[in-house]
Write a structure and sequence with these properties.
The protein is mainly β.
Length: 532
């Protein structure tokens, strides 16, 4: 078996190392781990995969990591890593795989100016990417980190200002805690998060990112000045979004499915706001929150639950709040609440200002607050749901004007006579019209998320022609295959050879697309995630 030998001395600061398509094996801590030298200010040392497919880097023998980046000897880092697939070698007998995909500094280090782009990390025994507790100017773009033993992305406690000037853009941070011992199984680690890091000064921007099916929290930021927008945080076992720092915002975001389909009693919430920063400030704007009726009755969200003596201000506008138990804010919290739609199963909708507001007096809580069923297109727990608005939803045109210019799908705001409440604007051609009830036909898309192409196979009983369609989240049709030949009985095919392969045009951007297989009039629909 060929082994990697990409040594530090083989290239120099500011160089570009190109690794071509192929499979590379890593096992030796001394010789195999890639340790690029630091660049210089404005001049990155770059390690980039090149070719028709991403180079596949496989670790074995309980290897520490594939990339090891550290800066204890240099305050300027300037390293750019792009276009790789990183995983454990699942050998027999299993030798332990790789513990981490990328180790970017350790406790006591200060790392800076790192770019991670178009990297997929999965089947690692511990963390996907572990970034030093003190990190400055770090960018992660179009990275997919899933099926890890520990957190997908995170870092240890800082010794200084923590994470500052961080951008997480168009990433997939999911299934943390769903790999251990070489197989996709729940790991023994305590609450692995999609994103989790410690006290920091920020700013942190998290945008166009999905965090789902993590055994811990979805997005857990202990940083001041955290801005989360255009994100989907769905079906995580523990809390959905958790913010611990002053001056933090959530906008145009869907938070749903706490518990990930498990009806066992648990104390987790969709949204947790809890800071030790006196006179802190939070804003939650055009967010949709949905807690399943199948879950135990627990608070849908809390503010200052643990820090009951620390004053903060919470601005709460244009949000949909659905669950079995109210939103809870300590009396010390000053809330500016406008044009929110509540639909809590219990009588009390929110506890705020030492007052319980129920379905009959929620209008007195603040201007424009209402009670009613938002009429989602197709909510689901533990699987993909459709939280777009039905045409008759009371959330339509019921919001107040805010600074947002688009919604989670990228549709303009407002559409119609006013702003809609929640993360989506209602559109006549939106996703809600194409996501009809799934049929008995099974779609499999792999890999998913994907980078260059996705292979689609269909299984099901059919006696009508098969057609494949792909839509973007705004409901625009991107692909339509010609109907396949009529097939009687069980079908596992589409256009040719039993498979359909989609290679997106270069002009298409990263994001969520909807794959629809049509047998006659009855479609089956699944979500695919394209990361350029």
């Amino acid at each position: 078996m060929a082994r990697s030998s990409i040594r530090r001395g083989e290239y120099f600061s500011g160089d570009t190392l190109i690794i071509t398509s192929g499979t590379y094996y890593f096992a030796d801590y001394g010789d195999d781990i890639i340790r690029p030298p630091h660049g210089n200010p404005g001049d990155y040392t770059t390690v980039i995969g090149h070719g028709a497919t991403k180079p596949l880097l496989l670790g074995s023998d309980n290897l520490y990591s594939i990339f090891e980046l550290g800066s204890s000897w240099d305050s300027e880092s300037w390293i750019h890593i792009e276009n790789f697939e990183i995983a454990s070698l699942i050998d027999a007998p299993y030798t332990g795989g790789v513990r981490e995909g990328i180790e970017a500094g350790s406790w006591g280090d200060t790392v800076s100016h790192y770019i991670f782009k178009n990297i997929e990390i999965y089947h690692v025994e511990e963390a996907g990417i572990n970034i030093a507790g003190d990190a400055d100017y770090i960018t992660l773009e179009a990275c997919s980190i899933h099926h890890t033993g520990l957190f997908a992305l995170g870092g240890p406690s800082p010794s200084g200002d923590g994470w500052t000037n961080i951008l997480i853009d168009s990433c997939y941070l999911s299934y943390a805690g769903h790999f251990y011992g070489g197989v996709e199984t729940p790991s023994p680690y305590d609450r692995p998060d999609g994103l989790g890091f410690e006290d920091s000064e920020g700013p942190i921007e998290i945008r166009y990112t999905t965090a789902e099916h993590n055994l811990g929290d979805g997005l857990d930021s202990k940083s001041k000045r955290t801005h989360i927008h255009h994100c989907t945080v769905a079906n995580n076992t523990c809390d959905g979004v958790k913010l611990w720092g002053d001056s933090s915002y959530v906008e145009n975001t869907l938070i749903c499915g706490t518990g990930d389909g498990d009806p066992s009693s648990s104390p987790w919430c969709l949204l947790v706001l809890d800071t030790e920063d006196s006179d802190g400030h939070y804003e939650i704007v055009n967010v949709t929150m949905w807690d399943s009726p199948g879950r135990n009755a627990h608070y849908v969200g809390t503010c200052q639950y643990d820090n009951s003596g620390v004053h903060v201000t919470l601005v709460f506008r244009n949000n949909i709040i659905v669950g079995r138990r109210m939103f809870f804010a300590r009396p010390i919290v000053d809330i500016v609440a406008e044009n929110n739609l509540f639909f809590i199963e219990g009588e009390e909708q929110i506890f705020a200002g030492d007052v319980y507001y129920d379905s009959t007096n929620i209008g007195s809580f603040g201007s424009g607050n209402i009670y009613g069923d938002p009429l989602f297109a197709g909510p689901a727990w533990g699987s993909d749901g459709d939280f777009h608005l039905n045409a008759l939803s009371p959330a339509r045109d019921a919001g107040t004007a805010v600074a947002l210019t688009d919604d989670l799908d990228g549709n303009p705001r407002p559409i119609g006579t006013g702003f809609d409440i929640g993360c989506y604007e209602f559109t006549d051609i939106g996703v809600s019209e194409i996501t009809t009830t799934p049929s008995a036909y099974e779609i499999r898309a792999y890999p998913n998320p994907f980078n260059s192409s996705v292979t689609i196979s269909i299984s099901g009983e059919c006696d009508t022609p098969l057609r494949i369609e792909i839509y973007d989240v705004a409901g625009r049709k991107i692909v339509e295959s010609p109907p396949a030949p009529l097939i009687k009985g069980r079908a596992e095919q589409s256009e040719a050879g039993g498979l359909f392969v989609w290679t997106p045009e270069k002009s298409l951007g990263s994001g969520v697309y909807l794959l629809r297989a049509c047998y006659g009039e009855e479609p089956s629909i699944t979500k695919i995630i394209y990361l350029k």
